Amino acid sequence: MNKKKILITTAIDYTNDVIHIGQAYEKMLADCYARYYRAKLGANNVKLITGTDEHGTSNEKAAKARNLTPLEHVNDVSKKDQLEIDELNISYDRFIRTTDEDHVKTASAVFQKAYDNGDIYKSSYEGLYCEGCEAYKTLTELNEQGQCLLHPTRKIQKIQEENYFFKWTKYSDFLKGLVQSEGFVFPEGKRKEMLAFIENGIRDIPVTRPKYKLGWGITTPIDVEQVIYVWFDALINYYTFGSQNGFWDEDTQIIHFVGKDISRWHVLLWPAMLKSAGIRVPDVVYIHGFLTLSGEKISKSRGNVIKPQELVSEFGVDAVRYYFLKYGPILEDVDFTLAHLKEVYNSELANGLGNTVTRIARLAEKSDLYFPLEAEVDYLDDGPSKCLDDFRPDLALQSIWARLAELDKHINDNHPWTITDQTKLKSVLTFEVNEIRTVAKVLEPYIPKIAQKITKQFSKSKIVFEEGLFPRIK
Q1: What is the pLDDT of residues 448-465, one digit of tens each?
Q2: pLDDT in tens, 463-474
Q3: In a 10 Å sphere around its CB, with 0-12 CB exposed, 13-18 middle and 19+ buried, how is residue 41 labelled?
Q4: pTM of the full predicted structure?
Q5: How far apart are the C-alpha atoms of 469 and 7, rounded to whole Å?
Q6: Which domains, from first to last, does the chain contain?
Q7: Which run of H or E residues covers position 126?
C-alpha cells in the first residue's frame, strides 16, 4: 500500500429499525483499521465514514406503521443508530445520511452523468422484488417456497412498472477484469462468488421507481415522476464524502467493508456506476460473513436482536470490541452467544490481560524502583501489523495474546517477588514493564480505552498500582 491517504467506509444501514450487534460488527472492524492507519499515516490522512440509508420502500413502510412521516421516522432511527455506534467508540469522521442535502445533490449529479453517457434508458420491468433487500430477484435467488433467502418472513412482491434502467451489461468485461485483479476483493472465497455471478450473466437493472409506487426517494434529474432506486442512491454516499474532502483521488486508498448480503452491489454495481460517471473506482472491498444469535440469523424482522449498548452496559465497550474483533465473522458466519462472550471476558481479559497488568504494576510499585520510558514504541512492523494488512484482526489479537502468555511465563520463571538483588530485580522488571508498554500501544486499534488507560498507568518512571481493568463477571 503506497497511497498517502486512506478512506475507510462501512455499509450504511436501513432505517427501518435500529441497528443490532450483527450490523455493528462491521463498524468495529472498520474502526480498528482506521485507528491502525491513523497511527501509521497520521490522523489527518485517514477518514472513516458510516451512516444511514434512509430512502426506499422499507423505510417508507416502517414510517407508516408508526404513524409518522418518512422524514420523522428516519430522523428518529438515524439518531438512535448513531447513539448505538457511539457506544462502541467508533471514531468516524462523518455519520452520513442519504437525506443530507449534499448527498442528494451528489446522487443526482452521478445519475445525470451516467444518463449523459448513454447508460440510462427507459423501459418496462416485470418481475420479483424483495422489500427487505430492496432488490430485484430472480427465481434462482429464492427458496423452494418462493421466498427470499435473506428475508424468508417477507412476501416477495410481483411488480410491473416503467423504470429507467442502467446498462449494467455494458460493463461486464470491465467488472470481470476488476474482480480478477489482485487485491480488489477479499477474501478469496468471496472473490470467486463475484466472478461466478458475472459468468452467470449480468443483466441491465432498473435504477428508478415510479413515484406513484414509491414517493420516498430522490427525484431523478431527468424525470420528476421517478425517484432514484435506493441502491443507486445509497452507494453514492461514499463518494459524497470522499469527493468533498479530497479523499477520492489517486493518492487515496479506498477500502469498503461490507457484509456478504450486499457484496454484489459493492463489487459489481458500484464500480460500474462509477465507471459510467467517469469517476475512479475503490481499491478494496472486504466482505465479511454473518453473525448469528444462538443458531439463528439475527434479523430486525424476526425480532431476535441484541443492540450494542445492551452488551456495552454489561461487559464494557472494549470487552465487546475485543470479543467481536477476535471471534467475529471475519471470514465465515459465526454464531454468537452471551455465554461465550462471558467466558472470553473472564478467561482472556480478566484472567489474561487484566491479571498480567495487575501483577506487573504491583511488582513495580512494591520494588520502589524507577523505570524510565524508552524510545516511542514502534509497533507498526510487528506481527499484529502484518495480520491487519492481511485483513485478519483475529490473528493479530491471537499474536498479541501469545506475547502476553510469554510475558506471564517470564514472570513465573523469574519469580521477581523473591529477588533480593536490586540490579537483577531492576533488569527483570524493566523487561516486563516495557513489554506491557509495548502491548498497550499495539492494542490501541482494538481496545482503545483500555489501551490508553494502561499506557497512562505505565507512562511515568514510577509505576503506581491501580484497580483491575476487567472485574470478573459471575
Answers
A1: 999 999 999 999 999 998
A2: 998 888 999 898
A3: middle
A4: 0.92
A5: 33
A6: 5-308 (3.40.50.620), 337-457 (1.10.730.10)
A7: strand 120-130
